[in-house]
Amino acid sequence: MRCPFCQFPDNRVLESRSAESGHSVRRRRECLRCSRRFTTYERIEFVPVVVLKKSGERESFDRSKLLQGIVTACEKTGIPHAQLENMVDEIEAELQQRSIREVSSSEIGDFVLDHLKHLNEVAYIRFASVHRQFKGIRDFIETLDHLQHPADEPESSSPTEQAEETAATETTTETATETTASPSQESNLPSMSHT
Ligand SMILES: [Zn+2]
């Protein structure tokens, strides 16, 4: 992070503290050349996720649409609404932290099934019947079989776990916020990539 006054690349951190209700870290820095001080904020990168639908159309990820599908599948199962919201939060975070910005709708469906599998069998079957477009009783039986013999499915290669691995890698963006900073051309940008 270059000093906004003299562009010197090295500085020392005087103070770090949590900001924006824990969603970012605010750091007070001092330039090692001109000794002037400036503030940076570090936060999790948030980039819109694009969903590739079965029809080939693309649309931006819609959280409420996903929640609605899950709520419908979980109707009368007694699962608290807050738990479903949490599930959507988790899936959204998984998608957010992947290195790829595009996800297919069937992949999202698999994420949901992965979560429902551990939550409720009825909800799982209901969601699967819509998501995998069940044609008849045979599809239900096959899915039930699969639920009862999960050993057929190698756990280590599930898309959820892959996403979690990606989430562990550091993707942060820092933004220089000192308003008295030098009027650089970048001042119109909402954030500067921290590389
Ligand atoms: Zn400086």
Count of distinct strands: 8
Distance linking N and C termini: 9 Å
Strand content: 15-25%
Ligand inventory: zinc ion
Roughly what is the average pLDDT, rounded to an integer?
Answer: 80
Strand/helix succession? EEEEEHHEHHHHEE
Shape: elongated
Number of distinct helices: 6
Strand order of the largest sheet: 1-2-3-7-8
Alpha-carbon Rg, integer: 23 Å
Number of domains: 2
Report helical residue fraction.
Answer: 25-40%
Low-pLDDT segments: 155-195
Structural class: alpha+beta
Kindly summarize this structure in a few lines:
The chain has 195 residues and is of the alpha+beta class. The protein has helices spanning 63-73, 81-96, 105-117, 121-131, 137-148, 159-168; strands at residues 11-19, 24-31, 37-44, 50-52, 58-60, 102-104, 172-176, 192-193. It folds into 2 domains: 11-45 and 171-193, no CATH class; 50-168, no CATH class.
Task: State the main characteristics.
195 residues, 37% helix, three-stranded mixed β-sheet, 2 domains, alpha+beta, binds zinc ion
Describe the 3D structure.
The protein has 2 domains: 11-45 and 171-193, no CATH class; 50-168, no CATH class. The chain has a 5-stranded antiparallel beta sheet, with no helix packed on it. A 3-stranded mixed beta sheet has the order 5-4-6. It has helices at residues 63-73, 81-96, 105-117, 121-131, 137-148, 159-168, and strands at residues 11-19, 24-31, 37-44, 50-52, 58-60, 102-104, 172-176, 192-193. The radius of gyration is 23 Å and the shape is elongated. It is an alpha+beta fold and 195 residues long. Strand 1 and strand 2 form a beta hairpin. The protein contains 6 helices and 8 strands; from the N terminus they run βββββααβααααββ. Zinc ion (ZN) binds at residues 3, 5-6, 8, 31, 33-34, 36.
